[in-house]
Specification:
about 300 residues; alpha/beta; 8-stranded parallel beta barrel; 4-stranded mixed β-sheet; 15 strands; about 25% helix
Length: about 300
């Protein structure tokens, strides 16, 4: 079955809302909402198709875009490859040029059941930020508190509070405090997978060793996993986790004996999964464009964010 290649655009307005369009009833997956875009024609680059389709469909001119995620999905009657881009700058006011209904919605209000199955990983991706901070190695609870507050003040909105040097009782007490702090900035705190929390704004970050033992997705609104192999990435994908972290990409001083995967391996592995993935290990903020070209959601790190806190 031939793969249908589609260029897709994620367009945000100044309020953070995302533009969605409704498919005509007579087409495949008709009546469902989707992110705007269309087929890549023979001999056409994905970027050229994206510019053409968004102009034909919405009347806008794409000025800048960046890769967000690739999705491969098999329906009963067709296979699709969605090349999804964040539209970082465009000219014009989006309007319906093909008679399709348009709507603006906040990412958290997007209901997966109202979209084709292939679009569901895109919903995960648009709800996630570019950076994922891992908070670790602080000498005391007060130091963790200061670093956490500094990350929020600097605009970091997804934080894995790992803190393996803290006893569980102290960790639990601070987890409640950090969850309350995160609510004030619409941030999310990811907790150790040994901790059960139903507080709004919290999630669970699974270790790779825990991931490989699971037969079904753990409870929780947001569940992520650490991955170090293609097999682990595939497990995270099959469990329909919200995102994964792949490491190490480059050599690190904290794990000098670990063999780095490198950019090429990361690029190839990400083509096998349909979930947002953060790359981690030896990376700097300047590596973000390379990570996005690999198909990653963004970059994660410990020391990467210590200068912020």
């Amino acid at each position: 079955m031939a793969m249908i290649h589609v260029a897709v655009g994620v367009i945000r307005n100044r309020h953070g809302e995302i533009l969605i369009t409704k498919r005509h009833d007579h087409v495949h997956q008709g009546g469902l909402w989707e992110f705007p875009g269309g087929k890549v024609e023979s001999g056409e680059t994905v970027e050229a198709a994206l510019r053409r389709e968004l102009h034909e469909e919405l009347g806008i001119q794409v000025a800048e875009s960046a890769p967000l995620i690739q999705v491969r999905h098999h329906y009963d009657d067709r296979c699709v490859l969605l090349d999804v881009f964040e539209i970082e700058r465009f000219e014009g006011e989006p309007r319906s040029r093909e008679g399709q209904p348009l709507a603006w919605a906040m990412p958290e209000k997007l209901s997966p059941s109202a979209f084709p199955a292939a679009d569901k990983p895109i919903i995960n991706a648009v709800r996630l930020p570019t950076f994922y901070a891992v908070l670790e190695n602080a000498p005391s609870p007060e130091s963790y508190r200061q670093r956490f507050q500094a990350l929020l003040q600097k605009g970091v909105r997804l934080i894995y509070w790992r803190a393996r040097n803290l006893p569980e009782q102290i960790y639990l007490k601070l987890a409640e405090e950090f969850a309350q702090l995160a609510k004030t900035t619409d941030a999310t705190v990811m907790l150790r997978d040994t901790i059960s929390s139903d507080s709004p704004g919290t999630g669970a970050h699974l270790t790779a060793s825990r991931l490989v033992t699971l037969k079904k997705r753990p409870p929780g609104n947001i569940v992520a996993a650490a991955c170090h192999s293609l097999e682990e990435l595939r497990m995270a994908d099959e469990l329909q986790l919200n995102f994964a972290v792949l490491s190490p990409i480059l050599p690190t001083t904290t794990h000098p004996n670990a063999s780095p995967l490198g950019w090429d391996t990361a690029t190839q592995w990400l083509k096998h999964v349909n979930l947002p993935v953060y790359l981690m290990g030896g990376l700097q903020p300047s590596d973000l464009p390379q990570a996005r070209r690999c198909g990653a959601q963004g970059i994660a790190g410990i020391r990467l964010f210590q200068r912020l806190s």
